[in-house]
Amino acid sequence: MNDLLENAKEFIESGEDNIKKERYNVSVADFFKAIAVLCDYLIYKNIKTLPKNHLDRFNLLKAYFPEIYSVVSPMFRRYTESYNQRMTKQDAIKFENYAHELRNFVSSKEKV
Prior knowledge:
mainly alpha; Four Helix Bundle (Hemerythrin (Met), subunit A); 82% helix
C-alpha cells in the first residue's frame, strides 16, 4: 500500500512541475491520477479491496466516502474534458489543491 502513496506523491510532483512549465492539461491529468490513487488507498484501507476501474472506484466512493465522491465525481468530468479541450492554470490549481487536501486527509487517517 505504500506503493500507492509513493505513486500519488510522484503524480503530485509531476503536476506541480507541469504547472511551472504551463502544461495545464498534463498537470490536470497528473493531479487527477494522484486523486484517484489516494481514493484507491482510502478504499483499500477501509474495505480491503482495490477498485478495478473508474466505475468501481466511484461506486465504492459513493458508498463509503460520499463527501469525497461529491467532489471527485465532477472533477472526473472536467479531467476527461482535458482530452479535447484546453485546461487553464485555474483548472490545474483547483486539481492541485484537492490533491493536497486529499493527501492531508489520508495522512491524518494514518495517524489515528
